[in-house]
């Protein structure tokens, strides 16, 4: 069994909880309150600034030029395609790009991004990929699921989000990261695989907390 299949089987119930979170459900049926989405969009922009650094670190840790180039492409796609979505939403909410960049990160945004960067900086390339994968893979799964809801992709506010994360281009990038993790996991000891599994589980849990933090507009107490 591929390592990604093992992760998928083991973590299915937790993934389901992510999909079932009211933020995700309401995003899909179009009932999500605008201010919740606005809060999410700002925090997600701050999140992506840090997240994109994982791709830069991936290029540093890559063992061959092909992998290095792919991480450079992922870095570019995040900064210029994915974050363009956020800049476009920000414009609709009347938020400038400077305001977006200078917003205060919430405790969960800080904890999540710092956790990933810690694993990426201190671990091997496999640990880096285990840290970043639940974000990409999870959004691709959520994007596809929401896109299957009739009319969801045409929603005047949330349609753009759903179209981005269900797009074949996004799926192709997520698929490449899944394959890379499987390649890197091949031949590792059970103890090493367990470490990767823990990192993957923790970032999967952080994904849930990110939805929850956004739904409740949670900043410092
Ligand atoms: C919190 C979060 N996870 C994953 C993605 C997908 O890149 C994102 N934009 N934000």
TrEMBL record:
GO terms for biological process: thiamine biosynthetic process; thiamine diphosphate biosynthetic process. GO terms for cellular component: cytosol. Pathway: Cofactor biosynthesis; thiamine diphosphate biosynthesis. GO terms for molecular function: thiaminase activity. Its EC number is 3.5.99.2. Residues 9-216 form the Thiaminase-2/PQQC domain. InterPro entries: Haem_Oase-like_multi-hlx, Thiaminase-2/PQQC, Thiaminase_II, Thiamine_Salvage_TenA. It catalyses: thiamine + H2O = 5-(2-hydroxyethyl)-4-methylthiazole + 4-amino-5-hydroxymethyl-2-methylpyrimidine + H(+); 4-amino-5-aminomethyl-2-methylpyrimidine + H2O = 4-amino-5-hydroxymethyl-2-methylpyrimidine + NH4(+). The keyword Nucleus does not apply. Keywords: Hydrolase, Thiamine biosynthesis. Belongs to the TenA family. Catalyzes an amino-pyrimidine hydrolysis reaction at the C5' of the pyrimidine moiety of thiamine compounds, a reaction that is part of a thiamine salvage pathway. Homotetramer. NCBIfam families: salvage_TenA. This is Aminopyrimidine aminohydrolase. The gene is tenA.
């Amino acid at each position: 069994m591929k390592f990604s299949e093992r992760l998928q089987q083991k973590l299915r119930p937790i993934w389901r909880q992510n999909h079932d979170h009211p933020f995700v459900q309401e995003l899909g049926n179009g009932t999500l309150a605008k201010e919740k989405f606005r809060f999410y969009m700002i925090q997600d922009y701050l999140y992506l600034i840090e997240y994109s650094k994982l791709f830069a670190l991936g290029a540093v840790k890559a063992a061959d030029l092909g992998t290095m180039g792919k991480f450079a492409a992922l870095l570019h796609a995040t900064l210029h395609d994915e974050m363009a979505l956020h800049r476009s939403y920000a414009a609709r909410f009347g938020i400038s790009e400077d305001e977006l960049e200078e917003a205060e990160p919430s405790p969960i945004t800080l904890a999540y991004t710092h956790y990933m960067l810690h694993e990426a900086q201190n671990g091997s390339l496999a640990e880096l990929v285990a840290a970043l994968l639940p974000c990409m893979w999870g959004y691709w799964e959520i994007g596809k699921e929401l896109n299957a809801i009739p009319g969801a992709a045409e929603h005047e506010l949330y349609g753009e989000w759903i179209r981005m994360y269900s797009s074949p281009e996004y799926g192709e990038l997520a698929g490449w990261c899944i394959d890379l993790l499987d390649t890197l996991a091949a031949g590792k000891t059970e103890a090493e695989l367990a470490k990767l599994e823990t990192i993957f589980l923790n970032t999967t849990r952080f994904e849930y907390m990110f939805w929850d933090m956004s739904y409740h507009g949670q900043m410092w107490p």
